[in-house]
Each structure stands twice: as structure tokens, then as C-alpha cells.
Automatic annotation (TrEMBL):
SMART domains: FAS1 (SM00554). SUPFAM superfamilies: FAS1 domain. Residues 1-23 form the signal peptide. InterPro entries: Adhesion/Biosynth-related, FAS1_dom_sf, FAS1_domain. This is Fasciclin domain-containing protein. Residues 32-176, 178-320 form the FAS1 domain. The keyword Signal applies. The keyword NADP does not apply.
Amino acid sequence: MKTIKIKLIAFLALITFVTVSCNNDDDSSQTPQTIVSIAQANPNLSSLTAALQKADLATTLKSSGSFTVFAPTNAAFSAFLTANGYADLNAVPVPILKEILLNHVLSTKVKSTEIATGYVKTLAKGGASTTNNISMYLEKNSGVDINGGKTNGGATVTIADIPASNGIIHVVDGVIGLPTIVNHAIANKNFTTLVAALTYNPSSGFAGILSGTPSSPFTVFAPTNTAFSSFLTETGYSGLAAIPANVLETTLKYHVVAGANVLSSSLTNGQIVSTFAGQNFTIGLTGGAKITDANNRVSNIIATDVQCSNGVIHVIDKVLLPKF
């Protein structure tokens, strides 16, 4: 009888040991690793790991925090290097690489279910502003597009919601470039008419100007599609094709300030603004930010401080009309 009792106690002890061991194993497997550790363990993110090391950002993304990282695959990095004429990652200047990588990082943890269509701020800074971080446009459909997708210098999320101890990872199919004013206009479907207007007369080169850095930074007061529709009704033009080329170009330039990245915090009541068209308009702040154009028409500023690499965008609800 004693032998049976001893065997039974040993058996129960073995069961207890196995159960505790399994529970411990489960606990450790459920403990998320840091963003960098996860990237290092994923063969498809080895280029990202190498880029983080080169740009001295690995330590940041190993530290405690609550980051969201849009992680480009090796194929995405390969396409980026080819498109920009770099032989390999070592050929990318560190300051450029660092800003590009920071443009993939948000300072808060955002799950895919929490993403809504609109603008967020990355950790990157372009050359246009030292204080206002670069904006990222997220579009939520069946998936998530970033800055209009790969064809516009952005990306699409291919694998979402990889948890990390210091945030979350969304794998993307492109390296997200620092967006220009034109990139941001293309990304947001509320600006399709503005984009059509900018590109309607290629000989003006205006779209190219707002894509580049000469005369930059730019401040653009961008009318929405609804604003353009109201403008056409108001002026009696049947469409963009009916607007004389010189009228369209002057009108577009009237929405642009060259050589200044003017943030909303710098606008003052009664401020006279000189535009790229050589004509002025007036800022008003009473009852909300607004613009009075050369024809005493009033447009409301409905969104502000969309930061681009070569300037900043403020959204308005009416097309500004210069004098002709």
C-alpha cells in the first residue's frame, strides 16, 4: 500500500510540474518583443533592420514607448533604392535615410481598427519646417492606403497589427517618401479637382513647381472639390476646359504663398498676404479663420497645417478669385 501511495504522489507531482512548465511557456510566448526584435526575427524585414541600425534609430524603437511603425519589406526597400539610384543602403546618406525612416513612425500606438481616413503626424521633419512634423494621409477602405499608395510615393498595409511591447507594426509594400504638396493633394480624394487644375495646362509647369524645392517652401490654401464646383457655378464656366489658361493659372497662383511655410499659429487678424500671383488677400480670425479675396468674397479655412516636405497646406471651402 505504501508503494502505491508513493507512486501516486510522484505522479501528481509530475502532473503539477508539467502544468506549471506549460503555463510558464505560454506566458513567455505571449509576451510581445520590441519592434526592433520583431523586425530582426523576420527575414522579410532584414533591410528595415539594417536601415534602422545605419540611421541609429534601432535604440529608439527598442526603448519603452507606444509607437506605430509602418514597416517596409525587403522588396519595398529594393524598389526604393533602384528608383532613387542608390546601389545599396550604404549609399543612402544617413540624414536622408533617418528622415525617411522617421516618416514611417507615429508617436502613438494605432491599431488598424482605430485608423480613420485623415491626417496624422509622423516623427519626420522635412526641409520646410523645423517645428511642424510631416503629415501622413491615411485612407481607410477595405485596407489602409498611406499617402495615396505606391504610385504616389506612399504604400499600402499588407499585414496589420503585429503587437510589440513598445507599440505595433503594420507591414507595408512601399518605402514611404517625404510627401510634397502635390503628393498630398493627389492622396486626398477631396482634392481631385485641384489636382486636375494643377495638371490641366502642363506648359505652365505649375504642378512641377509645387512638387519641387525652387521658390519653396510654399504655403498653399487648397480648395476642396465642393469649392471648385461652387466656383464653376458662380463664374458660369462649364468646367476646367472652359476657363481661359491665363485665368486658371493666375487663380491657382493666387492660392499660393512662395518662400514661406506659414503655419496657422502665425496667422493674425487683418494680416495682408502676398501671393504667388502678385495680388494680396486678407486673413480674418473673428468667428473662425477666413480669407477675404480681392473681390471681397470670403472663404473659410476648414483644416490647417498639413505639413509637406516643401511646404504646408491649409484647406479652404471656397476658391479665391483674384482681380482680372
